[in-house]
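User: quick one - fold this with nicotinamide-adenine-dinucleotide bound?
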Amino acid sequence: MVEEINPYEVAKTQIDIVAKEMKLDPNITEYLKRIERALIVSIPIKMDDGSIKIFEGYRVHHSTVRGPGKGGIRYSPHVYLDEVKALATWMTWKTSLLNLPLGGAKGGVCVDPKKLSKAELERLTRRYTAEIINIIGPDIDIPAPDVNTNAQIMAWIMDVYSMQKGRSVPGVVTGKPIEIGGSVGREPATGMGLYFVLQALCEKLNLKLKDLSIIVQGFGNVGGTIAELLYNHGCKILAISDISTGLYCGDGLNIEKLLKWTKEGNYLKDYKDNNYKLISNDELLTSKCDVLIPSAIENQITDKNAEKIKCKIIVEGANGPTTPEADKILYKKGIHVLPDILANSGGVCVSYFEYIQDIHSYFWKLDRINEELKRIIIEAFEETYQISQERKIPLRTAAYIIAVSRIARAIELRGVFP
Ligand code: NAD
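Assistant: Sure. Structure tokens for the protein plus nicotinamide-adenine-dinucleotide:
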């Protein structure tokens, strides 16, 4: 467990907050706080030295009421069931907010993938897939990459599933390599979505994006992409971090060089530049900037540090980086928080495009992907912004109102079986 705060409790508190605001039927509130199903599996792996190690894995469906489950798979030594339940719940709100015909799911394996060889990682992925095979599939639940998983891992999952079915089934996962049914634009999609919503919020607030100073926590798929997009746009990136350290430079970091460094498999702590100062992830979060973009893990902005945060805008690249207590403090301070279910929904949006391209066996050009992504995410942003203005509520509560209303309506229309 990364922190003592349980992300699933956070997810349930967020439901209570929106239920109160919407005066939601208490029966539906209770319904939404439950997950549909969770599978816990043991994953025995033959290690390269001949020994057998057993890892624990999970796959959780929070809601499939509006369509098949959708959500990433996380490999981390800190993964545990309640975290996966929370992440699955947030996926339900995300797909609903974008009005995609999908539900919410998530998976994880409690493992430090950096300690495995490539062959061990492949065996772990293949066995995990075999263990969860009955609850995934293009019509059931479609996994994707998350922290420490990538296109190669998706390719192995697709292969195991396809071997069991006796035919190639690319639509079982998204975030695959392009050569086997992946989509152009999927890898940078989450960062791209962050960029579109930040740009849209800046327009509302009469801020020029290129004049803003930026701090990004997490320098992987999401953090690396948004840092690069904003750097190329002309923004000053004051600080970035990975799990090893934070790096700060008042004159701005050279993101291009740092990306090259980390993409070669290096940690930021080993990067040598005398103008750059090493700072902790905690210091990074409370350093002064215009836009703070937490893009690592949950529970980073809490009641312990929210008062010390000195930015105008927070864009949640990560899922669940801010606790409900911190939200209250940030709102009082007048900090605009672009919530995770909106801000980082670009990934699931292009995952949806990948899924439909696979089903149709017809692939789109990058221009079309980015155009459709922008249209869908900006529509959700505008709707969210309008509700937040009308009701004088935070953007998160507004986004939840839209997402939860759609799920509640679907439950009402379908009825409760039997
Ligand atoms: P990633 O594995 O590519 O990168 C994670 C980054 O965070 C790395 O730089 C890592 O070193 C850093 N990190 C990990 N643990 C940390 C810690 N304890 N403190 C500080 N830094 C830490 O993962 P990603 O895909 O970029 O995902 C990052 C976040 O974005 C997660 O919350 C994930 O759920 C969310 N997200 C990802 C996608 C996607 O498409 N990949 C979509 C939506 C949301």
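One thing worth noting: The domain at 35-180 is CATH 3.40.50.10860 (Rossmann fold).
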